[in-house]
Design a protein that fits this description.
It contains nine helices and no strands. With 160 residues, it is an all-alpha fold. α2 crosses α3 (41-48). The longest helix has 28 residues, at 130-157. It starts with 11 loop residues before the first helix and ends with a helix.
Length: 160
């Protein structure tokens, strides 16, 4: 039985591989994971130790081999210089928590629609409308994150 790595214990790539080991014994070792992903064993060790940032292609290979679509979001939201500015970090939630989060986020949709219609009605944005627009942006960001988390869940558990 493979040992658990201590240096990589909190690394998302390591944790995803260890979780995938429950379904595929081959992923219990870096050697097996290297065979499954096509990533060199030493490179994989350095990625799991946080010494190396994986290439996007490597993240895709790990996400596929480990059945862990959340790795793609982690890479884009935390490691990619462009993604850090545009992609919100998402969690892979259980369906009950996810359903509540999506329903809560959608409650703000009608409010957002009404505010946008009022502000855009005259084709100009005044200073007193800026706080309303900021609230709209917060609501949209909440809906975006909930939508992305639902998409992650679907990819993981439904395969879509």
């Amino acid at each position: 039985m493979p040992r658990n790595a201590t240096k990589a214990a909190d690394n998302v790539f390591y944790l995803a591989r260890k979780a995938a080991e429950k379904c595929n014994d081959h992923l219990g070792s870096r050697e097996g994971a290297a065979e499954e992903t096509g990533i060199d064993r030493t490179r994989l060790a350095r990625i799991e130790a946080g010494v190396l940032v994986p290439y996007p292609e490597e993240v895709l290979m790990m996400a596929h081999a480990y059945q862990a679509p959340q790795l793609c979001n982690h890479y884009c939201a935390s490691l990619c210089p462009l993604g850090k500015k545009t992609i919100p970090p998402c969690e892979l939630l259980q369906i009950d928590r996810l359903a509540l989060k999506v329903m809560s986020a959608m409650q703000g949709a009608s409010c957002v629609q009404q505010i946008i219609l009022e502000i855009a009605g005259d084709g100009q944005i005044t200073q007193d409308e800026v706080p309303q627009l900021e609230q709209v942006m917060k609501n949209l960001e909440t809906m975006e994150r909930a939508s992305m988390e639902l998409r992650l869940w679907m990819q993981k558990y439904v395969g879509q």
